[in-house]
């Protein structure tokens, strides 16, 4: 797994994938911590570049980054934007037909994607966790687990999505 990235290589990757000459305040430290596989909590204002803080490390590390996202529309927007930038990302959720989900799952196992967006309920379902996720770990590995838009839990309450409380146990097993 790649972790120690020289400054010039990190900035080249930032420019190549995202078109930026420099990081916004706070981003570089978060990216470096993510590349070093440190646990971290990044709180930034809307438009502050939080997504880049996990997307760039996903591109620079081996394996697939799992991104837990609370809403289908958010997953679709993120994947669409990444696709427009030439970044291999996908989602698995109920908006897909069984055939589409199977195609994306096969592509993930082949290593065609670097980021996978999922709802916490899918990620924690025994069928997914003990079936597909285990196959993905064996085939490609998991570069990290990211919880995106976690503020939804604090805004809408713990009962909004009780699965969020179970993500810590999953993280330990990964």
Describe the structure concisely for a colleague.
The protein has 174 residues and is of the alpha/beta class. It has 9 helices and 4 strands. Strand 2, helix 5 and strand 3 form a beta-alpha-beta unit.
Number of strands: 4
Specify the number of helices: 9
How far apart are the termini? 15 Å
Please estimate the helix content.
40-55%
Structural class: alpha/beta
Order of helices and strands: HHHEHEHEHHEHH
- Based on Cα principal axes, name the global outline: globular
* Chain oligomer state: single chain
Overall pLDDT confidence: 88
Strand content: 5-15%
Query: Spans of 5+ residues with little confidence (pLDDT < 50)?
Result: none
Over all CA atoms, what is the radius of gyration? 16 Å
Strand order of the largest sheet: 2-3-1-4
SSE order and pairing:
Elements: H1 7-18, H2 27-35, H3 50-60, E1 64-68, H4 72-84, E2 89-91, H5 98-110, E3 115-118, H6 120-124, H7 126-139, E4 142-147, H8 151-156, H9 167-173
Parallel strand pairs: 1-3, 1-4, 2-3
Helix pairs in contact: 2-3, 5-7
Give a verbal description of the structure:
- The structure is a single chain.
- This protein is an alpha/beta fold and 174 residues long.
- It is 52% helix and 10% strand.
- It is built from 9 helices and 4 strands.
- The protein has helices spanning 7-18, 27-35, 50-60, 72-84, 98-110, 120-124, 126-139, 151-156, 167-173, and strands at residues 64-68, 89-91, 115-118, 142-147.
- The chain has a 4-stranded parallel β-sheet with strand order 2-3-1-4.
- Helix 5 links the parallel strand 2 (89-91) and strand 3.
- The longest helix is centred in the C-terminal third of the chain and has 14 residues, at 126-139.
- The model has no long low-confidence stretch (mean pLDDT 88).
